[in-house]
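Below is a filled-in request sheet from our internal design queue. Each sheet records the structural input a requester submitted and the sequence that came back. We keep these sheets so that new team members can see what a complete request looks like end to end.

REQUESTER: design group, bay 2
PRIORITY: normal
MODE: inverse folding
CHAIN LENGTH: 364
BACKBONE (tokenized):
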């Protein structure tokens, strides 16, 4: 407090300080201050339980790895047709064979499609805009392998189109462009291609390496070509493998509190296989997998890599982007969740304390 006072900074002993102030203070006291991010802190917490996710992945041997479906996010400007396109894609689902049937919204779904005479699955994440994408990335969860950038052919590039492609590029996620609404009389798909050139997305037909596919989500045209493009890009440059034969890890895509079913979380499995009865922890939520539902509302017993499922059994609602892990014992899941909660509580307390001490200060 004295040193800070001499530096012209009024602070009490229990107050939170910003990073720069801490560094100066450390220097004055002859210490080197090291800042620990919340992510690092959580990593340490997990390591305390013998869980080192990165090390585990690095230790995975080639022969444990199996091909998994690509995970695709649909992004684009408001009203350019993301939701409609996702609906159109869902209706081409060749295996479920229930086009037009009742599909529950679970925030993510898998479709099967025939590609070069082989039936292949693709996982789609139905994020409401790219806020969720950004939120997930902010929490260190890279969920998407590939992004479909939807651009309405009558509207062209709009601010959120640029934002979306910036996010995808920052995340190093390859982009396939869906030029939508080509059924409209004023559609100008060539203009979209030309506009995107300025942002480094050059169409193959213009000598670039980005696949553009003209689609009409309304009429359902171009959808198969779009799915083919996704699989071509996935097969050409992405290493889409995971070990299905271990306990599961993944990310919560969305979650809510349901009146009858309690906490319901849509999770995407990233490696391992999730099973009924598994103990899991996602952020500060923990519990046992009581039931799992697929996008059709059908109960499933297990979920392999890239599979999105709705999970029931958590004691509270995780946030979008929270990483989940399966623990060997119920106790460990509970302990991790409780420690995280304590960390969050302390951070909140520190903030509250700061406010109070500032008020005290102004009153004095
Ligand atoms: P937000 O979620 O609000 O960002 O919008 P969105 O991108 O999900 O767009 P949405 O799918 O809701 O479509 C917006 C409007 O465009 C709706 O009225 C759709 O019916 C219409 N629309 C979507 N695709 C097409 C298309 O291929 N052709 C035509 N003519 N209209 C389309
Ligand atoms: Mg929408």
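RETURNED SEQUENCE:
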């Amino acid at each position: 407090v004295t040193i800070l006072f001499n530096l012209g900074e009024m602070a009490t002993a229990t107050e939170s300080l910003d990073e720069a102030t801490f560094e100066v203070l450390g220097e004055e006291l002859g210490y080197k201050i090291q800042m620990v991010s919340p992510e690092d802190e959580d990593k340490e917490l997990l390591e305390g339980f013998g869980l080192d996710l990165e090390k585990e992945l690095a230790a995975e041997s080639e022969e444990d790895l199996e091909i998994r479906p690509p995970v695709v996010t649909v992004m684009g400007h408001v009203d350019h047709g993301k939701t409609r396109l996702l609906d159109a894609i869902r209706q081409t689902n060749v295996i479920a064979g229930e086009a037009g049937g009742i599909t529950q919204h679970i925030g993510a779904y898998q479709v099967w499609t025939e590609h070069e005479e082989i039936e292949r699955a693709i996982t789609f994440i139905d994020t409401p805009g790219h806020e969720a994408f950004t939120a997930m990335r902010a929490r260190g969860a890279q969920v998407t392998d590939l992004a479909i950038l939807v651009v309405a052919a009558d509207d062209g590039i709009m601010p959120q189109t640029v934002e979306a492609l910036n996010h995808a590029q920052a995340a190093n996620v390859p982009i396939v462009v869906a030029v939508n609404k080509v059924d409209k009389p004023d559609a100008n798909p060539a203009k979209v291609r030309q506009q995107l050139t300025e942002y480094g997305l050059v169409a193959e037909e213009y000598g670039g390496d980005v696949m553009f596919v003209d689609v009409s989500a309304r009429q359902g045209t171009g959808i198969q070509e779009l799915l083919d493009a996704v699989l071509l890009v996935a097969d050409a440059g992405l290493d889409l493998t995971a070990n299905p034969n271990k306990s599961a890890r993944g990310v919560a895509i969305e979650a809510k509190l349901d009146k009858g079913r309690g906490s319901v979380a849509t999770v995407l499995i990233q490696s391992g296989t999730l099973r009924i009865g598994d103990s899991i922890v996602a952020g500060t939520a923990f519990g046992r997998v009581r039931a799992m539902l697929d996008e059709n509302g059908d109960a499933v017993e297990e979920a392999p890599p890239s599979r999105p499922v709705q999970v029931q059994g958590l004691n509270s609602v995780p946030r979008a982007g929270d990483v989940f892990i399966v623990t060997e014992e119920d106790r460990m899941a509970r302990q991790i969740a409780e420690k995280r909660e304590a960390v969050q509580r302390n951070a909140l307390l520190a903030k509250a304390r700061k406010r109070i001490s500032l008020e005290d200060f102004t009153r004095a």
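SHEET NOTES:
- The chain is about 35% helix and 25% strand.
- Residues 330-363 form the longest helix (34 residues).
FILED BY: M.R.
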